[in-house]
């Protein structure tokens, strides 16, 4: 996928409450405006990378990009699980992410246990892969350090354009 690493940010919106949090794996959803800006070579499946909420610390993340059954699979969704324990929900905050690598395609599971096991494998894989020096470099990129929620959104989106265009 030529578009990786891919940088993007957007407000955290409410999902469909499909119970991710109850599984111990909450996923922060991006609005359609962010999903629609995904390059066409970014396939559905599971990705790993870095994420930061507002001006907070940068953490490892896994992201699922999938066809959304709620919209009869005509729309995609981007759901990020930040590998960190937060004290509170962060709906309405700006989530910044860089998608670094691809783990696997989407799959359907016969049991909840199998699904949870697969996600936990993805998390372990993300943790290990992100320790590579070339990936650690992205954690420290200007994309995360330069962002301030005080900036007008045009400034935030132009920094996104600059990063993706190198
Ligand atoms: P929803 O259907 O609204 O997305 P979830 O059960 O998937 O509900 O929970 C997602 C919400 O949980 C996020 O929007 C965020 O506010 C909160 N949250 C707390 N911890 C995390 C985390 N580590 N990663 C992602 N979201 C988290
Ligand atoms: Mg969710």
From TrEMBL:
Pathway: Cofactor biosynthesis; FMN biosynthesis; FMN from riboflavin (ATP route): step 1/1. Residues 1-131 form the Riboflavin kinase domain. This is Riboflavin kinase. The lineage of its organism: Eukaryota, Metazoa, Chordata, Craniata, Vertebrata. Catalyzes the phosphorylation of riboflavin (vitamin B2) to form flavin-mononucleotide (FMN), hence rate-limiting enzyme in the synthesis of FAD. Essential for TNF-induced reactive oxygen species (ROS) production. Through its interaction with both TNFRSF1A and CYBA, physically and functionally couples TNFRSF1A to NADPH oxidase. TNF-activation of RFK may enhance the incorporation of FAD in NADPH oxidase, a critical step for the assembly and activation of NADPH oxidase. GO terms for cellular component: mitochondrion. Its EC number is 2.7.1.26. It is an enzyme of class 2 (transferase). It holds the Pfam family Flavokinase. The keyword Nucleotidyltransferase does not apply. PANTHER family: RIBOFLAVIN KINASE (PTHR22749:SF6), RIBOFLAVIN KINASE/FMN ADENYLYLTRANSFERASE (PTHR22749). GO terms for molecular function: ATP binding; metal ion binding; riboflavin kinase activity. It catalyses: riboflavin + ATP = FMN + ADP + H(+). Its cofactor is Zn(2+). Keywords: ATP-binding, Flavoprotein, FMN, Kinase, Metal-binding, Nucleotide-binding, Transferase, Zinc. It comes from Echeneis naucrates (Live sharksucker). InterPro entries: Riboflavin_kinase, Riboflavin_kinase_bac/euk, Riboflavin_kinase_dom_sf. GO terms for biological process: FMN biosynthetic process; riboflavin biosynthetic process.
């Amino acid at each position: 996928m030529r578009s990786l690493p891919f940088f993007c940010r957007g407000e955290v919106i409410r999902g469909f409450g499909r119970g991710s949090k109850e599984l111990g794996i909450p996923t922060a959803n991006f609005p359609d405006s962010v999903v629609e800006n995904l390059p066409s070579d970014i396939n559905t499946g599971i990705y790993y990378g870095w994420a930061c909420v507002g001006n907070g610390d940068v953490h490892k993340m896994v992201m699922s990009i999938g066809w959304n059954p709620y919209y009869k699979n005509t729309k995609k969704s981007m759901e990020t699980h930040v590998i960190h324990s937060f004290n509170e929900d962060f709906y309405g905050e700006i989530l910044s992410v860089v998608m670094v690598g691809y783990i696997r395609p989407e799959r359907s599971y016969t049991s909840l246990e199998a699904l949870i096991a697969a996600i936990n494998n993805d998390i372990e894989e993300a943790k290990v892969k992100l320790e590579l020096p070339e990936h650690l470099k992205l954690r420290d990129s200007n994309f995360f350090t330069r962002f301030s929620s005080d900036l007008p959104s045009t400034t935030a989106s132009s920094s996104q354009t600059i990063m993706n265009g190198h």
